[in-house]
Design brief:
- This protein has about 350 residues and is of the alpha+beta class.
- It is about 50% helix and about 15% strand.
- The two termini are about 20 Å apart.
Length: about 350
């Protein structure tokens, strides 16, 4: 945002916003500027920011959308066809805009429920973040700025919003997420061969680590590197094991990226979901997890006797809850949109 002209900005939009731009009076307002010519605004006015959506009387701007979308830009460089890339960018921007709208709707629900996040809650979160990553205060601030926040105050506001969202969704959707005993029993018999056996797979992977302190540009570069490595894998000029030994960022590189055999709930959810979809010998797309980027190859699949039914049931319940969370959240946000005045501008 441009702070220099804040005092003279036109900020009163009312409860029903019909304008598509914020404008800010220039001083002096004499000459016709390039901005005026390009935007069609009156002489002496400059385009300040474009309104992309409104939720009741709250505005979501192009600047907010861009800041939220920037970390995803790296994936666009993986699409070589210009038309496909343009289509992908438009679709993902609209998805991010939908997320911003949903966030505003949920925060309004939090206000209705009188939910609050205290300064102590935020401080505890930041202390855990520092402890988990062994960061100093300066390193934490570096992380905050690399992720698009000007200062700690801005990051505090972001954390407060995210914590309020989590509490509101948890409160509203708890009863919709937990599977019933009947649902759990049906899934157990359906997915585990009548409740007798479970699947195991053996896989290799090439892992590109994403460090905690990463900027949008660095993330784009790492994403592009992962795609380039996947193209080398598909070219088959070298074996997967040789490429893993040369490129992977973890200790499995010495074993050609071999992870051995694993069952459900022994890997991160994103990794597991993709790995168990693959046939033997098949190569995954680049998979993004909380740790980084992965390229997965399944070496073998086998069916083994269940040795601990309670472990399997806990795993199955967790996976069902994750699926139910997605469905419940989508239904919940649709309900909220019907209760509020939401406008989206092209």
């Amino acid at each position: 945002m441009i702070a220099d002209h804040t005092a003279s900005c036109l900020t009163s939009l009312g409860t029903r916003v019909s304008v598509l731009v914020f404008v800010c009076l220039l001083l002096p307002p004499a000459a016709k500027t390039k901005d005026t010519k390009d935007t069609g605004l009156p002489t002496g006015y400059r385009l300040y920011d474009r309104v992309r959506a409104t939720v009741d009387d709250q505005v979501i701007t192009q600047y907010e959308l861009h800041r939220q979308f920037e970390p995803l830009m790296g994936a666009a460089y993986e699409i070589l066809d210009p038309a496909e890339r343009k289509k992908w960018l438009h679709e993902r921007r609209m998805q991010v805009l939908d997320q911003l709208i949903d966030t505003e709707l949920i925060l309004r629900e939090a206000k209705k429920l009188d939910l609050e996040v205290s300064p102590a809650d935020i401080a505890n979160y930041l202390n855990r973040l520092k402890a988990d990553n062994s960061w100093t205060e300066e390193q934490l601030l570096d992380f905050v700025k690399r992720n698009g926040f000007r200062d700690m105050a801005g990051y505090h506001r972001h954390v407060e919003k995210e914590m309020l969202k989590a509490r509101t969704v948890g409160y509203r959707l708890a009863s919709r997420v937990r599977p019933s005993k009947e649902e759990l029993d049906r899934a157990f018999k359906r997915n585990y061969y009548g409740g007798e056996y479970e699947d195991q797979i053996r896989a290799q992977h090439i892992f590109i680590r994403v460090p905690p302190l990463v900027s949008g540009r660095q993330l784009q570069a790492l994403s592009k590197r992962a795609q380039e490595i996947r193209r080398l894998v598909l070219a088959e000029t070298k074996s997967f094991a040789e490429l893993a030994s040369g490129f992977t960022d973890d200790k499995n590189g010495a074993q050609g990226g071999d992870l051995g055999y694993f069952r459900h709930c022994e890997m991160t959810p994103e990794f597991e979901k993709e790995a168990f979809k693959l046939k033997v010998g098949e190569i995954s797309e680049v998979v993004r997890t909380s740790l980084g980027f992965h390229i997965i190859r399944v070496v073998d699949r086998r069916k083994i006797k269940i040795d601990n039914k309670q472990r399997v049931l806990r795993c199955l319940q967790m996976n069902l809850e994750m699926d139910n969370q997605v469905k419940a959240y989508q239904g919940y946000t649709k309900e909220l949109r019907l209760q509020h005045h939401v406008l989206v501008f092209p």
